[in-house]
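Query form — protein Acyl-peptide hydrolase

QUESTION: What is the three-dimensional structure of this chain?
INPUT:
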Amino acid sequence: MVSTVPYGAWQSPVGAELAASHGGGPDFVGTAGDELWWVSPRPAEEGRFTLVRRRAGGPEETVLPAPWNVRNRVMEYGGLPWAAAAREAGGPLVVFTHFADQRLYAFEPDAPAGGGRSAPRPLTPVSSVGGGLRWADPVLLPDRGEVWCVLEEFTGPGPCDVRRLLVAVPLDGSAARDRGAVRELTDGRNRFVTGPRLSPDGRRAAWIAWDHPRMPWEGTELKVAEVSADGRLSGARTVLGGPEESVPQVEWAADGSLVAASDRSGWWNLYRVDPESGESTALCRREEEFAGALWRVGQRWFAPLPGGLIATIHGRGAAVLGVLDPASGEIADVAGPWTEWAPTLAVAGTRAVGVAASPRSTYEVVELDACTGRARPVGARHADRVDPAHYPEPLVRTFAGPGGREVHANLYPPRNPGHTAPEGELPPYVVWAHGGPTARSPLVLDLVTVFFTSRGIGVAEVNYGGSTGYGRAYRERLRGQWGVVDVEDCAAVAVGLASEGLADPARIAVRGGSAGGWTAVASLAATSLYACGTVLYPVLDLEGWTAEGGTHDFESRYLDWLIGPWDEVPALYAERSPLHRADRISTPFLLLQGLADPVCPVAQSERLLAAMAGRGVPHTYIAFEGEGHGFRRVGTVVRALEAELSLYAQTFGVTAPGVPALELVAT
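ANSWER: The structure tokens for Acyl-peptide hydrolase are given below.
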């Protein structure tokens, strides 16, 4: 039986707890001999992450029980947290970072119990100064008795009192109590570095470096140095990249040349680079992206295969996996249902392993046999507890923005096999602004989206100007225009939905987190298009965000690009900040904030509340103890989703079944 019920009031099998428990997905895949390894989220276990392994032909196994949390805080967003190496006897050796103390640990999962051998042992010392010592993007070198990685070392109490360098940590544990036993490979002159890549003969190392005020998608340098017999680096030189050229990844080919991604053509394409001369040759020149924004060190979009082939994630908008033949420039894409591949890729022999999803499936580990071209999922899938008939049928759309510019968006219309809306009723929609803002919303199945669409509320994810996936020129639209272009593009999608008769113009909301939270609040202040808004851990005050202690070091100069250098356009910092335009907000909103957020501090949200006091605008503020930038605990996500749905139900004039009422306060 199909019942006629107003949009937004449909009964749904996707509860907030189910949506929250499916949050996240596998990440940072890798190999140890024939074994596959990856990081897996555990939302129900206080949001921790664990290591998972899959032996050849065997089932998936959890390697580290609670309370081990395989994650680090390098650049606050974290980087690759583990590495493993196969050994002839005794099973693999694994090193990983533990979130609670940020130390680097070694672990032998197959070692017999007793004498402490089966427990992780620390390799690095306990932190003491400011943010302490943080480690990421490790390269395990058992023959050298070391693990090479990125060290983020705080030198004072402030978030910008920090240096980053490449280091060698001894595997014998001698540095567990002695910082001096950590051997420094680089001199710390570059503010940011990625993990080293050793040449096949071990005689050279390559890495990526950049400095303030640039972000890694603006300009980076590919560095190469010689590796001496005692493992030291010398003669470091730049062979690719610069202030206006982004090189987000480099790998060594079997012949001793380098393969790197660069956006020198306006698109992140792949190049072969001579490590001596720096001479580069395009391997496949296309108006597509073969890499992306390096938000976390250790992300990988491509990996060389035996015989000279390259497994590569590429595309315009959506990113798919293919095998590139550099000799011909031809790519054979993987067959299968997957339409989006995450920036994590590993190779073992002729196998390439990544993480992929589609509009009908959440992210899962997928293995490609490059010899046969056959791809198959190898990780345990989430139990299918939802009838796929409740999944939305998404649409990829391009809307017209100001001046006729293209605005890309993913639409998820309401869908529920048990309900239909009254004749003539148009559905409500929520316009989602992604974070970053240098990022992109992928077209994949997400039960948080289904939580709303299965109740009769459509979702429109806007990849506004500044988003990745569409070339450097599209990203550059946001340069100096943050708070303008993103707001205009979201508005263009909202207007387009209404003018095409896809959405009720009186029931369109806006929602965003982090940089998307900025866009959401700025949209509420700039236009009357939206009936209400949901704001998660937002940027609200540019002057406060850039001030000493305002945000973390990685993004402390981001506004030079997004707005303009402070000393050149100081007035814009106040003019654009939503906090200074709070008097223009007249619609209800929900504000959600983690109290341990180092990126968008809680003080900004509190200042917005103070600015709204006495204005009579209905709103609710919910703060979550122990949550940082992005919510990871099931309980947090459940409460946030239910509050958000209640906001929409009240604003749109419907009753959301089974959801606690949110108290909106008009002070």
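ADDITIONAL NOTE: The longest helix spans residues 634-652.
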